[in-house]
Amino acid sequence: MNSLENEHVNVEANSTFRPIAAGVDRTIEPAAEADQSSPALVVKTTPAQIVLVALGVIAFLYLARPVVLPVFLACIAGMTLKPLIRWLSYCHVPPAISAAAVLCLLAAAIGIGFFQLGRPALSWINGAPQHMTELRQRVQKIFPRFRRFGQAAAAVNDLGATEEEKAEAEKKTPTVEIKETRGTSSILNWTGTLLVGIGETLVLVYLLLASGDLFLQKLVHVMPTLSDKKRAVEISHEIQQNISNYLFSVSLINIGLGIAVSAGLYFMGVPNAVMWGTLAAVLNFVPYFGPVAGVMLLASVGLLTFDRLWQGLLPPGWYLLLHLLEANFITPVLLGRRFTLNPVVIFVSLIFWTWLWGVPGALLSVPILVSIKVVCDRVPTLSSVSELLTR
């Protein structure tokens, strides 16, 4: 009797739990099949999307120039001055006090330089029309063929004209009305914009230097994984170190170049030799275009100063010789292979940033390119871009 009851219980148990298991299998298996059959969600970026994003970024940088440019300038200046602030912090000087002292000393040095060199520069600018006329006369005197070409061109323009028409053309003198208010207002607007931009940049530089590593700590805090945190710290420190070393080394090189140019011009007898040497040092910060402008400017100064051709070519020749020595020997030795960028990429970057932001963009082109190269070196997926940027 007990065996019959046990068999009855087993039959009921089987009849009770087997359909449930079967029901569970019917529910799970279709879901598993659905998971296996559904493809993985992969987001692919098309070239058209990349081009649209790039054009949007360029348009934003161009339209937001009054806001973005001071931020870029402040970041570059902060990275350059950061080692000095860190050294003062080792001497137990608070970052806020050290940043204020460094910026005051820098502003005082720039102000003294502008005050000392501003007077001869303004006098030369005021006499620029007279200088240009004198330069044209000197060139025509040294190169008589240029004057003959000008006379031939004028004769070609007068072909077919009668004597009466020539006489009437000589009698007709165009009247030029100079509106000084418009020029004065434009100069005031440009000066006001420049001063506002300089003030914004100085305030941002002070805040960046006084805050210490606050932004780096915030960046590390938002990174999801430990490897990302380490990579962010390494990229930040390497960008800061490379830009600081580059600008510090280039500044020392250009200061030495300006001193050598000034000394050479002084012994040649060129007036305002210190002003021209300082201008040559500033122009040397701009790759390619700066040295070309320096040679042309000193050639004009030499032709205006001396009567003989070989004497007039001495100032540009001296500057060109010093620039070739600096570019081929001194700069490669001091900077080493860390900054061996592709010259074509440097030239394209210079053209792009000059078109985008003008003279400040030309000064920022190489530091921005160095920052991009550091990021590409640290990110494996951008190794091909790093190879493109390297010489």
Write a brief caption for the model.
By secondary structure, the chain is mainly alpha-helical. It is 84% helix and 0% strand.
Description:
The protein has 391 residues and is mainly α. Among the domains are: 59-126 and 199-212, no CATH class; 247-336; 340-391, no CATH class. 84% of the residues lie in helices and 0% in strands. The protein has helices spanning 2-37, 47-63, 65-90, 95-126, 128-142, 144-157, 163-171, 180-210, 214-222, 226-268, 273-283, 289-305, 309-312, 314-335, 343-357, 359-378, 383-389. The relative contact order is 0.07. Mean pLDDT is 77; it is low at 1-40 and 173-181.
- What is the oligomeric state here? single chain
Tell me the radius of gyration: 35 Å
Overall SS class: mainly alpha
Q: Total strand count, please?
A: 0
Give the DSSP E fraction (strand runs of 2 or more residues): under 5%
Q: Uncertain runs with pLDDT below 50, 5 residues or more?
A: 1-40, 173-181
For the record, give the distance between the C-alpha atoms at the N and C termini, rounded to a whole number: 97 Å
Global geometry: globular
Largest sheet: none
- What order do the helices and strands follow? HHHHHHHHHHHHHHHHH
Helices, by number, come to 17
